[in-house]
Amino acid sequence: MRFAGRRVLVAGGGSIGPGMGNGKAAALAYAREGASVLVVDRVLAAAEETVALIAAEGGAAEAHAADLTDAEAAADAVAAAGARLDVLHFNVGTSVRGGVAETAPEDWARVMDVNLTAAYLTARAAIPVMRAQGGGAMVFISSVAAVRAGPYAYAAYEASKAALGRMAQSIAAAEAAHGIRANVIVPGVIDTPHVTTVVAPDADPVELARARAALVPLGRQGSPWDVAQAATFLASDDAAYITGALLPVDGGLTL
Ligand SMILES: NC(=O)c1ccc[n+]([C@@H]2O[C@H](COP(=O)([O-])OP(=O)(O)OC[C@H]3O[C@@H](n4cnc5c(N)ncnc54)[C@H](O)[C@@H]3O)[C@@H](O)[C@H]2O)c1
């Protein structure tokens, strides 16, 4: 019960499709360890579904709808958490396939807005709350795409996730004196509805899963729970001396 009495905001805590996503699993994992969780998502129904899963297990959570690419909405979402905010877990993300030459300016801007600017706006709103209470922890969900090429080009996604990692390290350095830690999870190929819905909607799901697992030295795709367990560790006092870290959760993919 590492989060008993703690307030956690999971940004992008819904799921884009049926099944278990990274944000949904993280929200459940924090709640299972005693947190009161504010599940924020652009899609209210998606946040409410996560809240219902937490409530069914006897946990505490509320849903809040916000498009976190909007500064006012991001500030309102943080305010909705209440007087305390112990953990900001930022899971929001989207992607568009294509190299620089194939990426339309509006797609580039949208990916940057969702993956990077929304993280900046949400963290910007959370920092004063955490400073005032004497500390807090942030966890940002990046991707191996931030550090290496994958099977297909993904220029906007790769650039936005790399910048997200550096922004988190900037927060870690600037806010350490206020007791605020910021860390980054770098997931590899994780088996979530995001993959079949956004990344490769036209692929045969069985063949896609086999091909993704074949990339991984440990021989399987990651599960959203692998990401969630790493996040709860980094956000907890067990990681009290860890800040600015980029933690691969990738089964050895980047070795
Ligand atoms: N699945 C993988 O293989 C993999 C690998 C590496 C990294 N990731 C990262 O994991 C995260 C996705 O995990 P997931 O499975 O929970 O995905 P998901 O798409 O199911 O969940 C993301 C949630 O964010 C919400 N969202 C999108 N834009 C938003 C906005 N502007 N404001 C508020 N909410 C918004 C969506 O509605 C959705 O419910 C992303 O950051 C992604 O880049 C995934």
Task: Name the features.
Rossmann fold; alpha/beta; seven-stranded parallel β-sheet; 44% helix; 255 residues; single chain; binds nicotinamide-adenine-dinucleotide; globular
Description:
It is a single chain. The protein is an alpha/beta fold. It has a single domain, classed as NAD(P)-binding Rossmann-like Domain (Rossmann fold). It is 44% helix and 15% strand. The chain contains 8 helices and 7 strands. The protein has helices at residues 22-32, 44-56, 71-80, 105-133, 155-175, 193-199, 205-214, 224-235, and strands at 7-11, 36-41, 60-65, 87-90, 136-141, 180-187, 246-249. The chain has a 7-stranded parallel sheet with strand order 3-2-1-4-5-6-7, sandwiched between helices. Helix 1 (22-32) crosses helix 8 and helix 3 (71-80) packs parallel to helix 4 (105-133). The longest helix is centred in the middle third of the chain and has 29 residues, at 105-133. The chain is globular, with a radius of gyration of 17 Å. The two termini are 33 Å apart. Residues 12, 14-16, 21-23, 41-43, 46, 66-69, 91-94, 114, 118, 141, 143, 187, 189-190, 192-195 line the site of nicotinamide-adenine-dinucleotide.
Write the layout of secondary structure elements.
Blueprint (H helix, E strand, L loop, with lengths): L6 E5 L10 H11 L3 E6 L2 H13 L3 E6 L5 H10 L6 E4 L14 H29 L2 E6 L13 H21 L4 E8 L5 H7 L5 H10 L9 H12 L10 E4 L6
Parallel strand pairs: 1-2, 1-4, 2-3, 4-5, 5-6, 6-7
Helix pairs in contact: 1-2, 1-8, 3-4, 4-5
The site of nicotinamide-adenine-dinucleotide has 30 residues, from α1, α4 and α6.
